[in-house]
Amino acid sequence: MPRFEPHPERRPALVAGASSGIGAATATALAMAGHPVAVGARRAGKCEELAATIRAGGGEAFAHPLDVGDSDSVKAFVAAAQDALGPIEVLVSGAGDLAAERIHELDPDGFLAQVQVHLVGAHRLVSQLVPGMVARRRGDVVFISSDVVRAPRTRMGAYVAAKNGVEGMARAMQMELEGTGVRASIVRPGPTATGMGMGWDAETTGVVLEEWVKWGLARHPYFLRPSDVAAAVAAVVGTPRGAHLSLVEVQPEAPVEAQPEAPVEKP
Ligand SMILES: NC(=O)c1ccc[n+]([C@@H]2O[C@H](COP(=O)([O-])OP(=O)(O)OC[C@H]3O[C@@H](n4cnc5c(N)ncnc54)[C@H](OP(=O)(O)O)[C@@H]3O)[C@@H](O)[C@H]2O)c1
Question: Which CDD domains does this one have (predicted)?
Answer without folding.
Answer: SDR_c
